[in-house]
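Researcher: Here's a chain I'd like modeled. Treat it as a single chain, no partners, no ligands.
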Amino acid sequence: MDKSPLTRLDWINNTIGPNRAQALADALKNNSTLTILELKITSIGDIGTLVLVEGLKTNSTLTKLMLHGNLIRETGARALAEMLKTNPTLNILDLGYNSIGHNGAQALAEGLKVNSTLTELMLQDNSIGETGARALAEALKTNLILTSLNVGYNSIGDKGAQALGMALKTNSTLVRLDLRYNSVGGCGAQVLAEALNTKSTLAMLDLGENRIRDSGAQALAEALKTNSTLTGLDLAHNWIGDNGAQALGMALKTNSTLTYLDLTQNLVEEYGAQALAEVLKTNTALATLALGRNSIGCNGAQELADALKSNSTLTELGLEANLIGDHGAQALAEALKNNSTLTLLTLRFNPIGENGSQALSEVLKTNLTVSIIGSKQPAQVTSIHPFADNMVHDGFADHFRILKAIARGDASKEIRNTLEYNYGWSERLLTPLGIYLEDNMAVRILCVLEEEAGKEIREWSEEDEEYSGRASLHVEHACRNLQVDEATIPDAVKSFK
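Model: Modeled as a single isolated chain. Structure tokens:
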């Protein structure tokens, strides 16, 4: 039996009642060995948090406290904020997926102003809003310890992002900032870019799932020309088109520190891919380029393939769902004959036929460095959920009987539930169904969805005219590639052709 002192305690997805919380708090008062306490999804709420904080007042060993998803609100946040003012050891505090609100964020911000130990604070999905972001920004102006702040999924908006950007102009310690899914637009991105132009210490900036568009990407690109600290930039799902991609490409001609760039699920087409490919011929820093779920096509893939012939630093290239056919796949395969640095190439959900697949298979016989995901791999579909999110066309027909059985129930609801968390789910569904399946099963599934699919696509398309053509593009490809009789297409879908 191991009698070594307990240094870590994990209690995950198991309810802690008042009695257990009190017993744990009592133990913490006298414990001198525990350094990590992880209480995730335990429903301790405010009452349990108050009890826990009482036990931590005299604890001098705990360095990491994880309270992820615990129904903690303003009262619990205030108690933790008071603890931050006096606790001498805590380095990491995870309060993600609670409901502390802007008042709770303000209280924590006050604690940060005097705290001298906390280096990581996670507050994602806490409804802190613009007001909470402003309070945290004020704390960052004087706090000299915090290195990582996660305020993703908090609806802070442009003004909240601007406040944080202004704080970064004087803050000299923050290394990572996560602003994912916060309704940040071009104005917020502009101020963040200005911060990167100063003596910023920021190494990783996550702006994924916002709406910075080309203007925001151009502002950030301008900052990258002089910034020498940022190594990772996540701009996935931001409505960035060729102009934004071209600006980023120009910036990478002089930037020598950025190693990770994520442009997944944007509006990048051939010319944007061409600009990025051109810079890959000379850039010696970028190791990961994620371009999945754009529309670069075969021409864009060929440009990138040409760059891979001389590039010796890129290790990961994501090109899933990009309308890349045989010619694009063959060009990539040809490039891989001599490239020995790329370790991962993602090509899932592309209309690659036998010729392209054969070329990729052949190159894998001699190139032992690269792994290719999505080149004629059989689908492992056992339920509607992985089917909806991970369809691969080769295995579809084999599993149609399973799908058909499920469709007799409420397949429409299941598919929607699977993807509703991701903005633009209709595009993700129509893409593999309409473009990458080589039999008429695609239309049968669209028929199952009927009016519900049409309603979802309409709502999604009407949000922005830039996206309105994407659904019709996918249905058009479906009809062409599958040689579909239009009489079989439900009206809800036909209206987008």
